[in-house]
Amino acid sequence: MKRNEFESIKNEFLNIYAVICNLTNDEILNGPEEIFRFHFERLQRLIARDVDDHLADELFYDRKFRSITKHISRLKTLNGLRMEIKYAQSIIAAPNPWIALQGFIYYPNYLRLADMEYRGAELKPGDRVVFLGSGPLPLSLICLCKQYGVKGIGMEQAPEYAKLSQNLIEALELTEHIQIVQGNHFSLPLNEEFMLVMVAADAGPKAEIFTHLAKTLPNGARLSYRIYEKGLRRLMDDRAALNPPPEFKEYLRIRPEPPVNNTSVFLVKDTKRQRMNLAPFGQT
To answer: Using the 8-state DSSP alphabet, how is residue 200 labeled?
Structure first.
């Protein structure tokens, strides 16, 4: 590992942090994006750099530096939320919502992620999934429905985002296939049968979510979540170090291919360490 490359990358993070660290939630979500868009684009280019894993590891395990990258990650998440809100609103207002949706910059990524979820959970057309933390723009559910005929229930705890995504699903004429409800992990289990619980990247706190699901879901229940395993993106993701409760057994990881950067992790609740049960599950 080249020391000058390490210092250069670290300084770039610190420079970005110095510019954005005092931004408030309201400024990011509601303020003019011209004051910060360039810096988040700069951050996106930085974390996309191809670097040696040892360099990323050294940065990841630097405790003082990690406190800075955690703050950067939180602000990056807020900027992503702003983008989703803005795009959901534009899709609803568009003459042709589907054409507008397909113009979203990350739409190809979500199509590939939907394929990973479909294969990893061995889903079939007509199956139903639950998505915790579906947000204002539930692209994972939309792509699973559009590509594979999978039904979905999106759970969003913020009432304004739940309402926005309900309006979006209505605009896309998917209300017979996708239901958006205001709620969180404590709303599970449901009366409806479902084959998979998908935990959104920004749903939290992760430890509390997994602990609750370990207590309430039946044996054989399956979960999925996404992480960054490689490169500088790992610095933006605390989930890479997540240790699910012992009730959950990892049975598959699907690693990404471009344009996707996330690894999809699949778990099954296996309290008795029995053979994995792939039957649908609902309220016990």
So the answer is: P
- Tell me which of 282 and 49 has the higher pLDDT: 49
Q: In the predicted model, what is the mean pLDDT of residues 226-253?
A: 86
Mean pLDDT, range 48-75, rounded to an integer: 92
The rounded percent of the chain whose pLDDT value lies above 70 is 93
Query: What letter does residue 277 receive in the DSSP assignment?
Result: P
> What DSSP letter does each residue of 130-177 carry, written as one string?
EEET--SS-HHHHHHHHHH--EEEEEESSHHHHHHHHHHHHHTT-TTT
Any idea which residue has 């344009």 for tokens?
A: 259
| Average pLDDT of the segment spanning 82-100 | 98
**Helix/strand/coil percent split, the chain, to 5:** 50, 15, 35
How far apart CA 31 and CA 36 sit, in angstroms, is 9
Residue 277: what pLDDT?
Answer: 46
**DSSP annotation of 111:** H
Distance CA 171, CA 98 (A): 9
Residue 160, number of CB atoms within 10 A of its CB: 11
Alpha carbon distance 8, 13 (integer Å): 9
* Extended strands (E) in the chain: 128-132, 151-156, 178-182, 196-199, 222-227, 248-254, 263-269
b/e burial code for range 38-75 (CB count within 10 A of at least 16 → b): ebbeebeebbeeebeeebbeebbeeeebeebbeebbeb
Q: Is the pLDDT assigned to residue 229 strictly greater than 90?
A: no
Task: Give me the pLDDT at residue 79, please.
Answer: 97
Measured CA to CA, the distance from residue 30 to residue 78 in angstroms comes to 11
